[in-house]
Amino acid sequence: MKKAAIIIPTYNEAGNIEKLILSIKDVIADIAQWNISVVVVDSTSKDKTAEIVQELAKKYKFVHLLSTKKEGLGKAYVHGFAYAIERLSPQVIFEMDADLSHDPKEIPHFLKKIENGADFVIGSRYTKGGSTAQDWGIHRKISSMMGNLVLRFGFMKLGIKDWTDGYRAIKTWIIQDSMSHIQNYSGYVFQIALLDSALKRHATITEIPVHFKERTYGSSKINAFEYIAQILFYILWHSSFIKFVVVGGCGFILDFAISFILIEKAHWDAWKATLISTESAIISNFIFNNFWSFAHKKVSGLGSYLKNFIKFNLVSSGSILIQTLGVAFFDHIFGTQYWYLYKVFIIFFIVIPYSYILYNKLIWKDK
Ligand code: GDD
Ligand code: MN
User: CB–CB of 167/83 below 8 Å?
Assistant: First the structure.
């Protein structure tokens, strides 16, 4: 029989945990093909959470208690993952909140997706059919929605709609391969680090709709301000797309600076200076994209390096052509005085998407 483990982190969930475990018990009793265990990772709760789970573990073989120090949600999950892998060797690991926000009745739907080939199933509030808590205040609704939008666009992975919810089923190999990365994120941002790592490992990711119910007992431990700051930092450090934009911006400055020096100071012909400066920017962009923006899929070996460098030059020539034609087009329609607006518009809405898509399709390929 296939095995799955549900990791449930708890901090002061005495009013929720028994009810949750008993309803999980009912759900898994009806799942014939999977042997499912529960690992509660309690970070020395001040209430009776650990005692309650301890009692349940005596009564039911599928329940396990792991007690850890209070080091944040991410660390609790990392300990829970390691414990489950070592003692239970599951093929699939679930994440689930202890406060009854996540309905155990969804467990079979997650498993169905796994059986159909998914590696990482997200319980999604933002996919069709899902929802956030009715009783969430407007602040929480907006910040959760904005956070997810920023993540979708920041990583340019528009297909994934819920990056943050903690109800998921994940194949164990992804967690094993991601362990060294997620260990660095002790707070709630760990959820994003794990999904990002799964994406970079080419996991097959799907979403199923879930209804997130706000807890009735106890209170949320999330610190919204800290969480948002962590998300923004995470995107800045880890998004290929943002790095690609930064590299492009630096290339633009380099291009401009070299042209300026050669034309103004060295009195070169403008066309010669432009040739040297654009090619210098292209070379620097290629190197920084290869070793930084797309480092997780970098090209190496002299042959493929040269081949891809030529492709990169072709794509870059394309963007020069697009800008030239675009500026000429707008100039023709609206007049020359707004040339800088045309240029900014073309760079943001045509050149950036064009280059990013072609780099991913032709040079730093996903598979
Ligand atoms: N062991 C342990 N240690 N558990 C913790 C800790 C900790 O330091 N902090 C929180 N938890 C547990 C809670 O007891 C609960 O079971 C679960 O983690 C989620 O915590 P909540 O405090 O209820 O968080 P939330 O409902 O605001 O957050 C939900 O949304 C976030 C963002 O969308 C969760 O689904 C998060 O996983 C999600 O990141
Ligand atoms: Mn909660």
Answer: no
Would the pTM of this model clear 0.85, i.e. be above it? yes
- Tell me the β-bridge partners of 206: 121
Which pLDDT does position 109 carry in this prediction? Answer: 97
Average pLDDT over residues 333-341: 86
Q: What is the overall mean pLDDT for the chain? A: 94
User: What domain count does the chain have?
Assistant: 2
Distance of CA 100 from the midpoint of ligand 2 (Å): 8
**Residue 337 pLDDT > 90, yes or no?**
no
Last residue of a domain, one of 178, 213, 238: 238
| Ligand 1 atom, smallest distance to 227 CA | 32
Return the pLDDT at 339: 84
**Ligand 1 lined by 278 (C-beta under 6 Å):** no
* pLDDT the model gives residue 367: 63
CB-based contact 94:110 (threshold 8 Å)? yes
Is ligand 1 within 6 A of the CB of residue 13? Answer: yes
C-beta 187 within 6 A of ligand 1:
no
Does residue 338 surpass a pLDDT of 90? Answer: no
- The Cβ of residue 138 has, within 10 Å, a number of other Cβ atoms equal to 7
Residue numbers of the domain that contains 88: 2-238
Ligand 1 center to 188 CA (angstroms): 7
* CA distance to 135, 222, 276, 297, 360, per residue, from 312 (Å): 51, 44, 16, 15, 11
Protein residue closest via CA to atom 34 of ligand 1: 166
Which ligand is closest to the CA of 220, given by its number?
Answer: 1
Rounded to whole angstroms, how far apart are CA atoms 291 and 313?
Answer: 17
**C-beta 146 within 6 A of ligand 1:** no
Kindly state whether residues 191 and 83 are assigned to the same domain: yes
Question: Does ligand 1 come within 6 angstroms of the Cβ of 166?
Answer: yes
Is there a single domain that holds both residue 320 and residue 207?
A: no
